UniProtKB/TrEMBL annotation:
Any matching Pfam family: Phytase-like
UniProt key word Signal: yes
Sequence intervals crossing the membrane: none
Keyword tags: Plasmid, Signal
Record-given protein name: Exported protein
Origin superkingdom: Bacteria
Domain Phytase-like: 46-289
Phylogenetic classification of the source organism: Bacteria, Pseudomonadati, Pseudomonadota, Alphaproteobacteria, Hyphomicrobiales
Residues annotated as signal peptide: 1-18
Entry keyword Transport: no
Length: 308
């Protein structure tokens, strides 16, 4: 699911990557997992979760589903464990939007950690549109963000199922987004993150094929934590690959290095992960995208610590 944002597109010839490698300086610990509740208090089914956002001011976890439902949860973390995950309410995001804007995939929170309550806004990336819209937590649409010409054109994407997938508000980088797969004009073994101000940063995929960028989340010191979903072959199990991207590593043509994080012996990341959010400090929460038939989604708590 490809992302598009205001960015000056580089020609394909400029995107030949030298595949720089970031020195391994981050430590990943997979701490805990918990299944999502099956239903909200009003009976709304909770499944196909594709984006997460933590609102520190309201102490609420938001999760958006593929069908455009925004779920609110009370979340409690204690001693490196998910102590409580309680659904609060679920609201649709459809009101006031064009009918062709569907398939919510990415989620980010604005004003969620400014010490004020009542001013939260959410950014939701929609694969079909493609589009990114701002919302209030009650589901009220506030308007669309303007996308760059190259990314606003659905014909530029590699396929219909590979449009907008992730969105993040990343400090000095501003609002950023990225395609799930490379655009038709770009090498297929690259990912590119786009900024609203026209900047863009490219890096090699985790593996040459079947390596889809699913989520972006800000980290300390301007870095970004990424999820790539990989499969060894078509139909094989999905694996959530956590990677650290640092724009300060970017060289010629903004080709950048990434660090691959090692989950150790844990198998909890062997699943279809699509959502990611930071909880403060070195804690991050991931969620799987599961249909009702496949069973409940899984929330997984991890720690990512920088070694230097």
């Amino acid at each position: 699911m490809i992302k598009h944002f205001t960015a000056a597109l580089l020609g394909a010839s400029a995107l030949v990557l030298a595949a720089p490698v970031m020195a391994g300086s981050s430590e990943l610990a997979v701490l805990d997992s918990r299944p999502a509740p099956a239903t909200a208090p009003d009976g709304q089914s909770i499944n196909e979760l594709s984006g997460l956002a933590w609102d520190a001011d309201e102490k609420l976890l938001y999760a958006v589903s593929d069908d455009g439902v925004l779920h609110h949860f009370r979340l409690e973390i204690a001693d490196g464990r998910i102590a409580n995950l309680e659904p609060v309410q679920s609201v649709p995001l459809r009101a006031g939007m064009a009918p062709q804007v569907v398939n919510a995939e990415g989620l980010a929170v604005s004003n969620g950690n400014n010490g004020k309550q009542g001013d939260t806004q959410l950014l939701v990336a929609f694969e079909d549109g493609p589009a990114i819209h701002r919302f209030k937590p009650d589901g009220t649409v506030l308007g669309a963000l303007q996308l760059p010409e190259a990314l606003a054109d659905a014909a530029k994407y590699s396929e219909a199922n590979s449009r907008l997938e992730a969105v993040a508000i990343a400090g000095s980088l501003g609002v950023v987004t990225a395609p799930e797969e490379a655009l038709l004009s770009e090498p297929g073994d690259t990912h590119t993150i786009h900024g609203l101000d026209g900047r863009r940063w490219s890096f090699a995929t985790f593996q040459p094929k079947r390596s889809n960028l699913k989520a972006i989340e800000p980290m300390p010191e301007g870095r970004l934590l990424l999820i790539e979903r990989t499969r060894q072959q078509k139909g094989a199990p999905s694996i959530g690959r956590l990677r650290v991207f640092d724009p300060n590593t970017c060289g010629e043509a903004n080709v950048c290095a990434v660090e691959n994080l090692d989950p150790g012996v844990s198998q909890l990341l062997t699943d279809n992960f699509e959502g990611l959010t930071g909880l403060g400090g070195d804690l991050y929460l991931l969620v799987t995208d599961k249909t009702k038939k496949e069973g409940p989604a899984s929330f997984v708590l991890v720690s990512v610590k920088s070694g230097a």
